[in-house]
Amino acid sequence: MRRTRTVCPFCGCGCSFYLLSEGDRVTGIEPSPLNPVNKGMLCVKGWNAHEFIHSPERLTTPLIRKHGSLVESTWDEALKVVADRFLDIKKQFGSRALAFLSSAKVTNEENYLFMKMARAAFGTNNVDHCARL
Questions:
Q1: Number of structural domains, the chain?
Q2: Which ranges of the chain does DSSP label H, i.e. alpha helix?
């Protein structure tokens, strides 16, 4: 069994734990007793943080809507569709018409970059995150 230390993705507290894996499958969580934030303890979200990794409901390729149906796409095509639509909305209604909602399943650094993109590239302060404390 392999142990990989990581930071919990669910909020900004900074708890850490080890992902327990066998082969290519993550099988469980072990809290890090040396982390000064969580001191070997985890909330219910932390204890179950590995469960979404191998979920059969997890999307593995981008989907875009074509002719009313969702179809698989490449990342380049999906990102172009989103960027073009955002720019169209900004041009037609202004940057205040845009809002950016982020995820707890990415790192704090990725959330920071997401916020910077919303503010610098699209000119909006309408940014929120699902794991605000």
A1: 2
A2: 44-47, 75-93, 108-116
E-state strands within the chain: 2-7, 16-22, 25-31, 63-66, 69-72, 100-102, 127-129
Residues 68 and 32 in one domain: no
Report yes or no: 35 and 48 within 8 Å, Cβ to Cβ: no
Q: What is the pTM of this model?
A: 0.64
| Per-residue pLDDT reduced to its tens digit, 6-27 | 988 877 788 999 999 999 999 9
What is the bridge-based pairing of β-strands 16-22 and 25-31?
A: antiparallel
How far apart, in whole angstroms, are the C-alpha atoms of residue 97 and residue 73? Answer: 27
- CA distance linking residue 8 with residue 104, whole number of Å: 9
